[in-house]
């Protein structure tokens, strides 16, 4: 099981099947999860990947071997699994590799109440129990098993509870599920709402026959953009494979930055809860804290990553948090992220505005952004140090996650990938020329 060291990541477990993940390994992970997460039960969901049923069964057998019960909710989105963990008050495990190709699968863990589990809060301990051969002996009495149906209906009610349904107006909404779990959960939520849905790729198919379920890549939005224009839709929504991330395009098919979506949702939620705290990660546009403060809220910047954000939400009592990557977190959703909750709040904001999606985001669309630019770099730290030396006299530099460099008319973040020899650059400027100048200066140093 040496491959375990390769597939345990900062926030989850992810690898190819069966080369890196097989039933023997997931059985052992079930035993380790029972020890680390405890019980009395662990709730388990899975996405539509062909390897999911077999791997999930092996995992649950491992959990039960250690005397902890298992609850199988079957096919689920990741936010549905988090809801089940929070609602039942038990740890949870979701079998998914999110946006990765079909040959991958993986596992996302949480403690009771959807509390996140990361490398330093449980994943490393599970890994070491297996690799060190220190798993306790199986229990004398195996845990019980039960299958629960109907969780999706309760989840759909929960999602709709975040909006005033009476405030929604008839909208035509194109939705690209990418053959992922949005094909299951979007109808469960939207069928009771006054929207006409134009569905794209709602058939659950973990081989992803149409395009990768990774809407952060522009080429994977082309079909959605075409459908919005062809059918005269008010908005288009795209979800990743496990449906916890949401991206959108306006009525013309133009992409809407997650920073702008974060600003809209923050403004909308703060209207109902004035004075509350909203978190945004350090790659979000400056328009986010400006919108939060204009709405009477308190804006707090965080590092990137769901485990860290959920921790800061708990510490600050934050109402909402948004990330540049399309993750949106809600205090009343056990501080977990949900693409669906973000979608219905955005649609409520569009309904109430009475205008177009472009009109809705225009007040927040003030700055020019580079988007995330990746560079392959052999020595990440040396490149970061060179950039630091170059900009040291021109800006304020801090190190919350990689390096954050800020000046009056621009800022950029340069941070290393956790899993690849890459540096990720995000630049924002007051205008396109300023952004381009800073972008090119940084890339000239990083790429030599």
TrEMBL record:
The keyword Isomerase applies. Belongs to the phosphohexose mutase family. Its cofactor is Mg(2+). This is Phosphomannomutase. Residues 372-443 form the Alpha-D-phosphohexomutase C-terminal domain. One of its GO terms (molecular function) is intramolecular phosphotransferase activity. Pfam families: PGM_PMM_I, PGM_PMM_II, PGM_PMM_III, PGM_PMM_IV. Residues 6-116, 154-253, 261-367 form the Alpha-D-phosphohexomutase alpha/beta/alpha domain. GO terms for biological process: carbohydrate metabolic process. The lineage of its organism: Bacteria, Bacillati, Actinomycetota, Nitriliruptoria, Euzebyales. It comes from Euzebya pacifica. Keywords: Isomerase, Magnesium, Metal-binding, Phosphoprotein. It comes from the Bacteria.
């Amino acid at each position: 099981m040496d491959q375990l060291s390769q597939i345990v990541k900062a926030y989850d477990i992810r690898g190819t099947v069966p080369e890196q993940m097989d039933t023997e390994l997931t059985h052992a992970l079930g035993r380790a999860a029972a020890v680390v997460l405890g019980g009395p039960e662990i709730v388990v969901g899975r996405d539509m990947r062909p390897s999911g049923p077999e791997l999930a069964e092996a995992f649950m057998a491992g959990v039960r071997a250690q005397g902890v019960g298992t609850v199988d909710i079957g096919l689920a989105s990741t936010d549905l699994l988090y809801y089940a963990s929070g609602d039942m008050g038990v740890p949870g495990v979701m079998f998914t590799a999110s946006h990765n190709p079909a040959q991958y699968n993986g596992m996302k863990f949480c403690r009771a109440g959807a509390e996140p589990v990361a490398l330093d809060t449980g994943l490393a301990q599970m890994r070491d129990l297996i690799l060190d051969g220190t798993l306790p002996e199986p229990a004398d009495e195996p845990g019980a098993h039960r299958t629960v149906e109907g969780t999706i209906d309760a989840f759909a009610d929960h999602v709709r509870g975040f909006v005033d349904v009476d405030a929604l107006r008839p909208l035509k909404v194109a939705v690209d599920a990418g053959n992922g779990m949005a094909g299951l959960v979007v109808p469960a939520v939207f069928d009771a709402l006054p929207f006409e849905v134009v569905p794209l790729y709602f058939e659950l198919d973990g081989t992803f026959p149409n395009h990768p379920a990774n809407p952060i890549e522009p080429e994977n939005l082309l079909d959605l953009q075409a459908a919005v224009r062809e059918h005269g839709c008010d908005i288009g929504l795209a979800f990743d494979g496990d449906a916890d991330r949401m991206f959108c395009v306006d009525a013309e098919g133009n992409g809407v930055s997650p920073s702008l979506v974060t600003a809209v949702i923050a403004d909308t939620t703060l209207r109902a809860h004035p004075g509350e705290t909203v978190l945004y990660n350090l790659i979000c546009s400056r328009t986010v804290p400006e919108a939060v403060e204009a709405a009477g809220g308190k804006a707090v910047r965080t590092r990137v990553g769901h485990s860290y954000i959920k921790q800061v939400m708990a510490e600050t009592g934050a109402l909402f948090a948004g990330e540049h990557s399309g993750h949106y977190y809600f205090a009343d959703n056990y501080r977990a992220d949900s693409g669906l909750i973000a979608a219905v709040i955005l649609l409520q904001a569009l309904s109430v505005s009475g205008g177009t999606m472009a009109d809705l985001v225009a007040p927040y669309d003030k700055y020019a952004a580079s988007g995330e630019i990746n560079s392959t770099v052999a020595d990440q730290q040396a490149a970061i140090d060179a950039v630091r030396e170059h900009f040291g006299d021109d800006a304020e530099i801090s190190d919350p996650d990689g390096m954050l460099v800020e000046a009056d008319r621009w800022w950029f973040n340069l941070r290393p990938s956790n899993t690849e020899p890459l540096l990720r650059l995000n630049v924002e400027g007051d205008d396109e020329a300023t952004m381009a100048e800073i972008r090119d200066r940084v890339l000239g140093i990083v790429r030599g």
